[in-house]
């Protein structure tokens, strides 16, 4: 009975450490994502840049790698 309780205690301890480790990683990752999101909106493009597309090239869907599905009636 002592060995069984020692194994259960060891498993519970290891699970506790693993969960805390994963939560810490998740929080750090979430903090890094919020910092990236806060920095991204700081760069505002002018209306001309938005109208011209990426790097001044406007594709209007012509360069899209995906083909469009045909609409059925």
Automatic annotation (TrEMBL):
Biased composition (Basic residues): 35-48
Topology versus the membrane: Multi-pass membrane protein
Localisation per UniProt entry: Endoplasmic reticulum membrane
Xref: InterPro entries: Translocation_assoc_membrane
Superkingdom to which the source organism belongs: Eukaryota
Keywords, sorted A to Z: Endoplasmic reticulum
Biased composition (Basic and acidic residues): 63-73
Protein name: Translocating chain-associated membrane protein 1-like 1
